[in-house]
Amino acid sequence: MTKKEAEAQVRSITRTCKGPYVDDEVPKAIGLLLNASLHKAAERLANVGRKGCGGDFNNVIALGPLDGEERAYKCPKCGVEGTYRAPNFGVLTE
Ligand SMILES: [Zn+2]
Prior knowledge:
2 strands; elongated
């Protein structure tokens, strides 16, 4: 697979940044919900409790090595930070 083909596969799924949490209470509430095994509610709050951003996260993935490793990222649009696992496409040709 070429690097260009791998990038096309990454971009075949839309991944947009949800932005930072609306306030510091949201991640605390998500933690409490997870501790109570309320995973669906935690997932919903994790989605609605964000300010929104819309930055194309595929730009971050496609620019980094596609080696299956976990990496730290910072959204270039809103500055939110986190980690993601890069997809692994094996050895890429030019
Ligand atoms: Zn963002």
